[in-house]
Amino acid sequence: MRRPVRLLTAVPICDGHDSAINTLNIEFIRHGAEVVYLGFHRSASDIARAAVQEGVAAVGISSYNGGHIEFFRDVRKDLDRRGGARIGLFGGGGGTISQADARRMRRQGTDEIFFAGTPLETIVAFVTKNYGGSRHRWSVSPGREARGRPPSSTSSSCGFSRRGPAAASLFCPTTPA
Ligand code: B12
Known about the structure:
Layout: E1 2-4, E2 6-10, H1 19-30, E3 34-37, H2 44-54, E4 58-62, H3 68-81, E5 88-92, H4 99-107, E6 112-114, H5 120-131, E7 171-173
Parallel strand pairs: 2-3, 2-4, 4-5, 5-6
Antiparallel strand pairs: 1-7
Helix pairs in contact: 2-3, 3-4
The protein binds cobalamin.
The site of cobalamin has 29 residues, from helix 1, strand 4 and strand 5.
């Protein structure tokens, strides 16, 4: 038995650039994920609250209008505050997020930032590797263990299976509740 990886995606407040996230949503779904898409122009607290309510493994944010360092930090803080310390956080924003910004964001608890030109397959592989399997097992962000994540040695049992060219799978073995 396999169950899908469950993700929540959104675009921050004051940002109407939803083209990238729409593309990614379709790609995640095409590979078997369940995607709760919250839409664009969403606040950090809207996103964190919905992510906890929906019991997702991770939150994916697409940000193009600036303010990403503070926004991702606020989502991370709000997730932790609402009992979602185990929920992953990742995202992208083309060329508007610099390498230096991304380093700072990782230090503040974002798992990964994807830059312009990243193949969609790379993003799907990242999600499968890091958020696949039970949402109580993780393999990202060593620093997150301090906030309640199990160590990375308990990484996902979910493989990155291939059924053909570019056919990664975001299905994972079902684990007892
Ligand atoms: C298309 C576009 C628009 C479209 C948006 C259409 C839509 N519905 O999305 C329109 C014309 C509406 C628009 C409007 C505006 N835009 Co505009 N727009 C762009 C543009 C040209 C492309 C962005 C895009 O969609 N790329 C396609 C995606 C698929 O490619 P990508 O960015 O490389 O994405 C990859 C990775 O970044 C990553 N990724 C991205 N998001 C995510 C999320 C997750 C979860 C993950 C895992 C990965 C990931 O994966 C992708 C695949 O490799 C950029 C310039 C640029 N080249 O980036 C400007 C840009 C983002 N816009 C800009 C601006 C200023 C505006 C406006 C304010 C202009 C104005 N004065 O009205 C408005 C704001 C609109 C609003 N309400 O927010 C600026 C932002 C500047 C800044 N932040 O400092 C930019 C950078 C242009 C510029 N150089 O000035 N825009």
